[in-house]
Amino acid sequence: MKKNVWPWLILAILVSLITIIFGQKLYQQRRLAHLYVNVSGSQAEIFLDEQKLGLAPIKDWTAEAGFYQLKIVTDNYTYSTSIRLSPRTATIIDWQTASTVEQSSGLTYELVPSSEEQSQKTQLTIQTIPDRALLALSHSRQTEFTPYQTDELLIGNYQAEISLPGYNNLSFPFSLTNGYQLKITAKLAQAAQE
Question: Cα 167 vs. chain centroid, distance in angstroms?
Fold first, then answer.
């Protein structure tokens, strides 16, 4: 009788191990985030927390969700910023280089899952560097100051234009989706001195 118990015991242990391994892989997949980095105007090396990702463009780099320090290294300067990579979502960096970091501009799109209570709403946050810039959105004739936050926009595609004296205007598209908060950070380029 004892001999008949061993095959079942071994089978139970194997099933348990397979379940644990599969569960860990599934958990890791749920914790992965995606990063895209596009740089225009110059060749640039991209670093994420001192790990060299390579030359831009970086397409669908996967990493554990969390907060990171992103560096864009060009021939003329190094730009560093903090970014948040959220699970099962994409963070997109679109950077336009110039001769100095002050004259360069960039957009960071961070898609963050909304809380359970907010899952049926779209949320938008737009902040600028520097702040207190004028923001015009395609759905409205009113202008707002940055930082700007709303949960009253409908799902869909929009166009934004940001202006601030002494800086170049920055225009960009964005889309809103149910259940996600879109955070856009716009680094404005200083206007050339005449």
Answer: 24
Is 157:173 a contact under the CB 8 Å cutoff?
yes
Going by C-alpha positions, the residue among 62, 77, 68 that lies closest to residue 47 is: 68
Residue 160 · residue 171 · CB < 8 Å:
yes
Per-residue model confidence as pLDDT tens digits over 3-24 = 566 666 566 676 666 666 655 5
**Mean pLDDT, the chain, integer:** 85
Q: How far is CA 39 from CA 45, 57, 154, in A?
A: 9, 6, 30
- Nearest Cα to 104, choosing from 154, 42, 148, 61? 42
- Predicted TM-score (pTM) of the model is 0.79
Burial class (CB in 10 A: 0-12, 13-18, 19+), 147: middle
How would you classify residue 179: left for phi > 0, otherwise alpha for psi between -120 and 50, otherwise beta? left
Look at the chain and count its residues. 194
What Rg value do the Cα atoms of the chain yield, rounded? 22
Residues 171, 133: Cα–Cα separation, whole Å: 13
Helix (H) or strand (E) holding 125: strand 123-129
Residue-wise pLDDT for 125-167, tens only, equals 999 999 999 999 988 888 999 999 998 888 889 999 999 999 9
Query: Of 95, 66, 70, 92, whose CA–CA distance to 80 is shortest?
Result: 70
